[in-house]
C-alpha cells in the first residue's frame, strides 16, 4: 500500500503535468446560460399552466425573441469570435466524425478543447432547431389575445402550416436536448469536467488536446460590441413591435 507521502508526490506531479486551456470566453458562457434560461422559460410557459405569469403566452413569445437575439449573436461570434468559439474550430467532415464515433465507442476517443466532432454537429443541430422554433413562432397566433409580429404577413396558408411545424419541431428539440444531456453525462463519466468548464471557461488536460490551436490576434472587443448591438437590436425590435 502506498503511504501518504508517495501519494502526495504523485498528486503533485500529476498537477504539474496538467495543462489549463482557456476555451470558452465570457460571451460564449453568457450565451450558453442565457440560452438555457430562455429555453426553460419557453417550455415552462407552454407545457404547464405558466404560473405565476399572468399571460404565459406573452412570456413564451418574449423568451423566443431573446432566443432569436442570442442565436444571431452566436452565429456572428461563430464567424469572427475567439479561437474556440468559431465554427471552423469544431466542425469536421464525415470521415473525421466517423473515426471519432468509432473511437468513442471503444473508449479511445481523444480529448478536444472545443467541441469534439460529434458534439460540434450536435451543437449545429440544436442551434438550427432552436432557430426554426423561434422563427416559426413569429408567425403564430392564439386567435384570442396574442399575435406574433409576423402573423399574417404571408397569408393564411402559412398561418395554417406553421403551428403544426412549430409543434413537431418542439418534439424534435426535446429529443436533441435529451441527446445533448446524455452526451454530457457520458463525457462526465469519462472524466471530462464539461459543466465546470462552461462556468469558468477553462479546461484541464494531462495531454495536449487533439484540436489545440494558437491564440489568434483579432479585434475581438470591436467584433463583440458589434455582435451584441445587432443581436440586441433584433430582439428589441421584436419585443416592442
Keywords:
241 residues; mainly alpha; two-stranded antiparallel ribbon; 8 helices; 2 strands; globular
Residue fraction in strands: under 5%
What string gives the helices and strands in order? HEHHHHHHEH
Poorly predicted sequence stretches spanning 5 or more consecutive residues? 9-16
Structural class comes to mainly alpha
Helical amount: 55-70%
Helices, by number, come to 8
Describe the sheet with the most strands: 2 strands, antiparallel
Main sheet: strand order: 1-2
- What is the C-alpha radius of gyration, as a whole number of Å? 21 Å
Q: How many strands in all?
A: 2
C-alpha termini separation: 71 Å
Tell me the overall shape.
Answer: globular
Chain-averaged pLDDT: 89
Strand and helix map with partners:
Elements: H1 4-17, E1 19-22, H2 26-47, H3 56-80, H4 94-105, H5 117-137, H6 156-189, H7 194-200, E2 202-205, H8 220-240
Antiparallel strand pairs: 1-2
Helix pairs in contact: 2-3, 3-5, 3-8, 5-6
How does this structure look, described?
- The chain is mainly α.
- Helices cover 65% and strands 3% of the residues.
- It has eight helices and two strands, in the order H-E-H-H-H-H-H-H-E-H.
- A two-stranded antiparallel sheet has the order 1-2.
- Helix 2 (26-47) packs antiparallel against helix 3 (56-80) and helix 5 packs antiparallel against helix 6.
- Residues 9-16 have low confidence and may be disordered.
